[in-house]
Specification:
about 325 residues, single chain, 12 strands, alpha/beta, about 20% strand, about 45% helix, 7-stranded mixed β-sheet
Length: about 325
């Protein structure tokens, strides 16, 4: 080997670590923003990673995911989004919260956003249309608000003597709360229900809301869909059991934790789909060309043990329609 070739070879070898570090720095970054907590969302994160895997991405191998768990602190959203935009992440994921998705859209018109929202994304200004989003955002519209009447109806079938229903909402999630209350107030009178509104934005306020329930004794409780509420599901079902109040929840994770009943979309599959869309965008598909997905499967779950503890007899017709019955 000539001396010049040998020296060139040494130079190339010395450069390998530099190249490796450059490749590592070039790994795309996904900013994952969720309004709840990490410990309560482990299964959903696993589903998101599964979706990424379906498009060829494995976390820490060819993609980095930065998780931002806001613990119900909606006021942190502008700063978090500003930081992600400043650092030019490849994709921003905002599954599970209207407020987070709106904040992301306000922060950037160029970085792709994959959202999961309960409200109409066209009305929210996130996309031009469901079929042709037309901008930098797309994702999943999971219909939690559209199933409000169905949830109230199922609750009334299970607790037919119920007249007064407390509706617990998170005022910090303002846009979502406004829509929930509008839909509830429209649907409840049609099935003979009166509603009382309770607010909670922190763990302490959830306890305070249940103290009010213990004092006022409504016939049942309707828990509004909210990312922070989902992360506090164990607290909810524990307090509902302690106060012996029948409650309906937005997804089956509450029922698995001991809640009475739920009706809504499959949350894990929703997170999987956001992973799939994130991977497609990393592979070069534009958000503008990915239609907003709408789930076709809705889950009705009942916890028989909880029903028995509350002294409720579940009608056979209701059991027959349940997708999941927890013994």
């Amino acid at each position: 080997m000539r001396r010049r070739d040998f020296i060139a070879g040494l130079g190339s070898a010395a450069a390998w670590p530099v190249v490796a570090r450059a490749q590592q720095r070039a790994m795309p970054v996904i900013g994952f923003v969720y309004i709840g907590s990490a410990d309560a969302s482990a299964g959903w994160v696993a589903a998101f990673r599964k979706g990424l895997g379906e498009t060829g991405y494995v976390e820490d191998q060819n993609v980095t995911v930065e998780y931002h768990w806001l613990e119900g602190q909606y006021d942190r959203l502008p700063a978090v989004m500003s930081d992600l935009v400043r650092r030019r992440v490849a994709v921003i994921v905002t599954d599970g919260g209207t407020a987070a998705s709106v904040a992301a859209k306000a922060a950037t018109a160029t970085i792709p956003i994959v959202f999961g929202v309960a409200d109409d994304p066209v009305k929210l200004g996130l996309v031009a249309s469901l079929a042709r989003p037309g901008g930098n955002a797309t994702g999943i519209n999971f219909f939690n608000l559209e199933v409000i009447a169905k949830r109230l109806g199922l609750l009334h079938e299970l607790v037919p003597k119920a007249v007064r229903v407390a509706v617990l909402v998170n005022p910090a999630n303002a846009a979502n709360t406004e829509t929930v209350l509008r839909e509830v107030r429209e649907a409840a009178p049609a099935i003979g229900l009166q509603t009382d509104v309770l607010n909670a934005s922190t763990s302490g306020e959830i306890d305070a809301a249940f103290a009010t329930l213990a004092r006022d004794r409504p016939d049942a409780l309707y828990v509004a869909p909210d990312g922070f509420f989902s992360s506090r599901r164990v607290q909810f079902v524990t307090m509902a059991a302690r106060n012996r109040i029948p409650a309906t929840y937005p997804n089956s994770d509450f029922v698995a934790a001991g809640g009475l009943m739920s009706y809504g979309t499959d949350v894990a599959d929703r997170f999987r789909l956001t992973g799939v869309y994130s991977g497609k965008i990393l592979n070069g598909t534009k958000a503008a060309d990915l239609p907003v997905m709408q789930p076709t499967k809705f889950e009705f779950a009942i916890n028989l043990k909880t029903a028995k503890a509350l002294g409720l007899t579940i009608p056979e017709t209701l059991l027959a329609t349940a997708d999941e019955v927890i013994q």
